[in-house]
Amino acid sequence: MKTQIKNSQTQRSSPVSVRHSEPTTHIFSGWRKHGIYRAFISLVAAGIMALGSISPAHADFIMTLDDLGMPGVEFVILDNSAADMDPTVGVISFLSILSGSVGVFDIQINTGLTKPFLGNNLDNVVLKLTDTTVTTGVGGTLEVRLTDTDFVLDTNFPTVDWTSDVGGVIFGGSLDAWQFVDLDNNEFGTTGPNVIALHHDPLGPGAFSDTLSTTFAYAGGLFSVTEVVRLTLGPTAGASFALTSSTVINPEPTTLLLLGTGLVGLFAWRMKKGAALA
């Protein structure tokens, strides 16, 4: 597994010494005398702890951009990190013109969408890699990965329908796409006994569209969804594509039967009541 991360920044604060003046010391002495100083310090500490607990972004929503022909992963982008051009929580947007090329690839725009921007209803979960446009002058293979954790569905419907849609156009290359659901809720969970996978066969060149679907048993608990796109392009080639993962609860046949029986009974009761009134 590659561990090199480029374009990371570390902010280091310089130590600052503060000289207290005599009037300030005198004020604090008065505060100590009346117990105000201790209350003030407690209030400041509580405020600092509260600020530290605020999460400005969705920490488990991550995108990686990797030129497989070069060492290391060029970009690992967390929601609202330095390379994320969109401040909206649940949206990651990358532009090479602002953050730099990904190896030999220029990305005009690349956007990932998840909760809370798309919502997380108990009957439907969606993860999208959309509005992606890539060009290259020399050719190579670009891998884009998108992952999010802590999805949940209604446990009253233990069967889940899962659909993967991909579409776009490629000039001078091909595209492979994978979707993974990890019931162990791991970031980039792509292997393991509780991982369900869908793989779109190589698509392109030219315009393409493909839909895959499957079902899996769901006993409750949090799970993750990961999307992987591997784009192989020749010299002076380009591509534009979108990939969507959608998981929807699927009522069991017995549940549908009970619902239908109830509706029939209600209809018969209304007909009988109407006949009696006539």
What report would you give on this structure?
With 278 residues, the protein is of the alpha+beta class. It folds into two domains: 22-53, no CATH class; 62-254, no CATH class. Helix content is 21%, strand content 44%. It has four helices and ten strands; from the N terminus they run H-H-E-E-E-H-E-E-E-E-E-E-E-H. A hairpin with a 7-residue loop joins strand 1 (62-67) and strand 2. The protein is globular, with a radius of gyration of 27 Å. The termini are far apart. The relative contact order is 0.14.
Question: Can I get a quick summary?
Answer:
The chain is an alpha+beta fold.
Distance between the termini: 78 Å
The strand count comes to 10
Which spans of ≥5 residues are poorly predicted at pLDDT below 50?
1-34, 36-57, 252-264
Structural class: alpha+beta
| Overall spatial form | globular
Radius of gyration: 27 Å
Q: SSE order in H/E notation?
A: HHEEEHEEEEEEEH
- Binned, the helix content reads 10-25%
Total domains, how many? 2
Number of helices: 4
Mean pLDDT: 77
- Beta content comes to 35-45%
- For the report, how would you describe the main beta sheet? 10 strands, antiparallel
Based on the model shown, name its key terms:
278 residues, alpha+beta, disordered N terminus, globular, 2 domains, ten-stranded antiparallel beta sheet, 4 helices
Topology:
Blueprint: H1 22-33, H2 36-53, E1 62-67, E2 75-78, E3 91-94, H3 96-99, E4 105-113, E5 124-136, E6 140-151, E7 159-182, E8 195-203, E9 206-217, E10 223-250, H4 253-277
Antiparallel strand pairs: 1-2, 1-6, 3-4, 4-5, 5-10, 6-10, 7-8, 7-9, 7-10
